[in-house]
Amino acid sequence: MSAIKVNALQKSFTGAPVLKGISVEVEQGEMLALIGSSGSGKSTLMRHLSGLTLADRGPASLVEVLGRKVQQHGRAASDIRRTRARIGHVFQQFNLINRLSVQTNVLIGALGRVPVWRSLPGWFTDAERRLALEALELVGLREHAMKRASTLSGGQQQRVAIARALMQQAEVILADEPIASLDPESSRLVMETLQRINRERGITVIVTLHQVDYARQYCRRAIALRDGEVFFNGPISALDDTTLATLYGTAHETAE
Length: 256
Ligand code: ADP
Ligand code: MG
Known about the structure:
31% of the residues lie in helices and 27% in strands. It is an alpha/beta fold and 256 residues long. The protein starts with a strand and ends in an 8-residue tail after the last helix. The site of magnesium ion has 4 residues, from helix 1.
C-alpha cells in the first residue's frame, strides 16, 4: 500500500496557479526528499497532504494517506480527523511551548486534537509519561526531559518536535524545512533523527529541503517541483548538474 497518493492536484491562489496538476506516490517506509527552489510549491503540496489546504475542484483530484481519502475533488473527506491523527508535522519553527518542560511538550503529542490548555500537570498517565521518555531517548534527549523547552538549542528543540510526533504515534511525518534555520551540526543531528525513526519505527517521512546535499545524504529518492509541476521524480543519484541547474538556476552550489 502507498503511504501517500496524490492525483491531478491543482491549486490556484487568487487566480494564480501554484500547483499545476501534481501526481505522485510515496511508498510506506520511504524517506523522500521534496526539493525545489523557493516558491516552487513544496509547502503548499505538504499542506494538501494533511488537508490543511483544499485543492481546486477537478474530476480526478485526489489525496489519499495510508489508504484513506484526505480530500477528493477539492472537498475534505468526512473522516479527515482520523487520518490527520496519523500524520505528524514538523516545521521550520519548532512550535514548542517555551515555558513547559521538554517532556510535557512531547506529551502534548498524545493529546491529538484536544486543546493544549488541558495539558495540566498530572493529566497524563504514567504509561504516557514512560512513552514520552522513550520518544526522547530515541531522539537523544532523554537527559533533558525536565528542562524548560526554551533552554534547548534550535536543533534540540527540533528533535523534541520529532519526539512529539512519535508520541502522537504518527505513521507519516511531514517535515517542512526542518533544518532551514539550523547550523550544519544541528542539521546533521536532526536529519539523522528523522532517518532513525524512519528505519527503526518504519515511519514514512517526507522532508522538504532546499539544500540538495542533505537530500543526497539521507534520502534515496527525490521529487523536485518547479513552478508547481513535478520536474524530477527518481533516485537521488539521477539528479545531475543539468537538472539541478534548471531547478535552482545556473549558479546552484552543491556545497555551502
Ligand atoms: P515553497 O514552499 O516551495 O517555497 P510555497 O508552497 O510556499 O513554496 O509557495 C508557492 C507559491 O504559492 C508562492 O508563489 C507563494 O507566494 C504562493 N502561495 C502559497 N500560499 C499562498 C496563500 N495562502 N495565498 C497566496 N499565495 C500563496
Ligand atoms: Mg516552503
